[in-house]
Design brief:
Blueprint lengths: L3 H12 L9 E4 L9 H8 L4 E7 L2 E6 L4 E5 L5 E5 L9 E7 L2 E6 L5 E5 L4 H4 L14 H9 L5 H5 L10 H11 L12 H20 L40 E5 L2 E5 L6
Antiparallel strand pairs: 1-6, 2-3, 3-4, 4-8, 5-7, 6-7, 9-10
Helix pairs in contact: 1-7, 4-7, 6-7
Length: 269
């Protein structure tokens, strides 16, 4: 599932590709992927432009010149592709938005969605989300205070969107590895120095993953050499049975809080 780095990478790249470009057409092949009737969806978008592309947690927000916002959540298996009809990959497209000869294709929206939301409805939609990891006010003391008394494991709290916004299965494991902590640890068991390490690791891992384009396996557009660049840089995620890059131990997969999790028992405590 795309997480903060993947969605931030999409946001940055799409801002240079589609902002202020006229929407010339739309096509919806799966009505359940949108929240209004497809003909109305087309009438609302056709002739408009996307004024800006923003991100909140794992959501992308496409603000239209008319004032409405397209809210995208890719969920599990969703990806984006921007290009001509001839360049489109052989994948099922649920929604596409045309910008002249090029289209933004929303692929794999079986669980994900692209909803039209009025300006006044955005704040209630995100009211239950926790702080963004890079918010200036989200300091190490604020991070520690938020996690210290919570039940569950580090894994369950890091992926809980009401605790922190934007982290999922992959980066929760990568953050714990960077901090030298087991994902199954309880927040209450951490010492102050360990909370500090975890906070710094969170910011370091997410920044690096965003810089290298996240782990998505398909380019956003032809010639895109950034998207997916972090996949080969994952230290533990999906590397079961491989040697640890830090200590040479063996990466294992464990079920932590009913979620798959990867770690190195030899150097994570």
């Amino acid at each position: 599932m795309p997480e903060l780095p993947e969605m931030e990478n999409y946001r940055r790249l799409l801002s240079g590709l589609i902002v202020n470009r006229l929407i010339t057409e739309t096509e919806v092949t799966r009505e359940k992927s949108i929240n209004i009737e497809s003909q109305r969806f087309d009438r609302l978008l056709r002739g408009q432009s996307i004024r800006q592309v923003e991100r909140r947690a794992k959501y992308l927000l496409f603000t239209l010149t008319s004032g409405e916002t397209l809210v995208l959540h890719l969920m599990l298996g969703g990806i984006l592709f921007y290009g001509t009809e001839a360049e489109k990959p052989e994948r099922t497209v649920q929604v596409r938005i045309g910008f002249g000869e090029r289209y933004l294709n929303f692929i794999g929206l079986r669980l994900g969605y692209l909803h039209v939301v009025e300006a006044g409805q955005l704040q209630p939609l995100f009211a239950k989300l926790g702080p963004e990891p890079f918010e200036p006010s989200f300091t190490e003391p604020a991070f520690t205070e938020r996690l210290a008394r919570r039940k569950g494991t580090l894994k369950s709290n890091l992926v809980d969107q009401s605790v922190l916004a934007g982290i999922g299965n992959c980066y929760s494991d990568e953050i714990c590895f960077d901090a030298g902590l087991r994902p199954a640890r309880k927040p209450a068991s951490l010492q102050p120095v360990e909370f500090e390490r975890l906070y710094l690791s969170m910011r370091r891992v997410l920044a690096e993953a965003t810089e290298f384009g996240g782990y998505m396996d398909m380019p956003l557009y032809p010639g895109d050499r950034l998207t997916g660049g972090f996949d080969s840089r994952c230290r533990v995620y999906d590397r079961e049975g491989e040697p640890c890059l830090r200590c040479g131990g063996t990466i294992v997969r464990e079920d932590v809080s009913s979620k798959k999790s990867y770690c190195c028992p030899a150097c994570q405590s």
